[in-house]
Specification:
122 residues; mainly beta; 4-stranded antiparallel sheet; 11 strands; 0% helix
Length: 122
């Protein structure tokens, strides 16, 4: 089992930007697709972005399309989430994970880390 450590969250005003990082170790990163998830208080965890191992394909939730960009640096075992034009509804704890396709779904491979808090408030 690999290890995932998220960082880069914080408090930002609406319209602002943040760049999240996810440092992976072990089997959590290499040859795997990676994804960012978020969970707001009282809400279900939702997947917001996915990137393939070679960065050839990406996918985004409708709520973040055009505002968020997922990327990865395989040499550094790190995946990023650039978040622009942030809205209050983006407030959540953000998590990363290694994922694989099973049928029509993406499934998380690793246990969940602590995540990083993103708060968007005026």
């Amino acid at each position: 089992q690999g290890q995932l450590v998220e960082s880069g969250g914080g408090l930002v005003q609406p319209g602002g930007s943040l760049r999240l990082s996810c440092a992976a170790s072990g089997s959590a990163f290499s040859r795997n697709a990676m994804a960012w998830y978020r969970q707001a208080q009282g809400k279900q965890r939702e997947r917001v972005a996915v990137i393939s191992e070679s960065s050839t394909t990406t996918d985004y939730a409708d709520s973040v399309k055009g505002r968020f960009t997922i990327s990865r640096d395989n040499a550094k075992n790190t995946v990023y989430l650039q978040m622009n034009s942030l809205k209050p509804e983006d407030t959540a704890v953000y998590y990363c994970n290694s994922v694989f396709r099973y049928g029509s779904s993406w499934l998380a491979r690793e246990s969940w880390g602590q995540g990083t808090q993103v708060t968007v408030s005026s």
